Every structure is written in C-alpha cells, then in structure tokens.
Task: structure prediction
Amino acid sequence: MSQSDIVEYYSEAGQDYSAWSPAFNMHFGYYRKWMNPFRLEPMLEQMNAEILSRMTGGKPAREMEFLDAGCGLGATARHIARQASAKVLGITIVPWQIEEAGKLAARAGLSVRITFDLRDYRDTKLPPNQFDGVYALESSCYAGAGDKADFIRESFRLLKPGGRLVVADGFLSRLNSKPNAIYRKCLSLMEEFWALETFAHKEPFLAALEKAGYRDVQIENANFRIAPSVAFIPWVTAKFFIKDVIAKRRTLTRRQLGNALAPILGLIVGLHMHRFSYCIVTARRP
Result:
C-alpha cells in the first residue's frame, strides 16, 4: 500500500471509529482481572495506561517527553498528558488526523502538553536523542516490510540513552506448514481493508530490534488480555450498520465499508493463534 492509500483510508473512515470509542481510542483494550469485561472504554484506556507504564518502567513521567508514532486522533497522547503530566509529540502522515487531534486536545485543555505534527515515523527529520519513550499503538503495522526495520531504526535514533520503545500490534509468525485458504483470504482482505502492506512478522521484527541496537527486549503475548475487547466487535459492527448506516441512510465509501468489515475478518484470523498473535513488545536503547 502507498502513503496515499493510508491517507485516503483514514481521511474517509477515521470518523467512523467513534462507533468503537467516543474518545477515539483506535485500538483494542487491555483487560485486568479487576475490570468489568462488559465495559469497553475502560479497557481501551487501560491499554493506554499499559503503554505508559512500560515506557517509564514505573518511574514518574512528569518531566519526560514521548513520541506517539502514528498518533491517530491522539487518544493515547491525551491519556499520557493527562495522567502523567508529560509532554507528547504525536505524528501522523494524515492531515485530517492532525487537525482533528488538535481540536480534541484543545477541548481537553491539554494543548500545552501535546503537539501534533505531520511527519512520517520512518523518517521524521527530528533531532536525535530527543525522547524518553517512543510508542506505536497499532500503528507499526503501517511501516515497510515484515520486519518494520525502517521504523525501528528511526525510533532508536530518536530515543535518549535509556529510553524505551513500546509496540502493541498484531504479529504474524512464520511456520513451516502452509496456512489454509480461509486464513490466507481473510488476512489478505483485512490488510487491504486497513490499507496495510503487511502486519509485522514476529521473528524478523525481533531480529531488527537487535540489529538496531536495542537491548532488554521483552515480548508479551496479549491475546487473552485483549480478548474481552475483541468480543465487542460483532456488537459494535452491528450497531454501526443499524444506527449509522441503515437508520441514517448513509452510503459508505469503499474505505468505510472495508473498515467496518475488517474487524470481523480479524476475528477469523485471530482464531489461528499459532499464526497470528497480539503482542506488546518493549525494548530499551542502551
């Protein structure tokens, strides 16, 4: 997929994410045993909290500065700025997201702590050694190739010594056996609908981290942590079509229709847990 495909997709379908999260948390949630699995938004916010805690290692983040690589509409940036009183730079290649994210930050009274900028996280043109943490929450999948090495190298350059990279996303695993036709078709369509070239391949991704110079790499399989939020997909999709499409007599564009159907395909792909898993990866720049 080209950058223009990504820009077109998010420009057309971005507003529809409000059906998933009124706060535009454009990601899956993280479930902890004390949480109510029937409330989606708190689990989405908990994922934001998990990203922050992994970047800081539990240290106070008040004077820290973070980079949101692929910021969407800035929900995670707002969470971090609000909860940790830290500074966040959110970057994206989608102009519409910059405009809308800025408005949402202003309404939340967080414009002093958050900046949004139109940049490619694979080549930001920013000065090196600038950030205490870099995170990509379901956005690293838009980097090039299966190893995402372009994004990994740039994140390493931008981090201060001791800074941490946190990536939460879907990962493919290489196996000797050939996947079945249903899995291959669903994965192909899901990547097309979300304007992806490919999801990250776990083994090459981890190798790219090591090659870039990262240390203390940790990978957590979070399949069962995100499962309660994934269970909302059929309900949210049905509600979206009934309330937002049928009742309002909307005609969806190709991108909007694909965005609505991709999560359903993801349910099928996600059942092949030996081939596809949701992981949270943490790595430290020495």
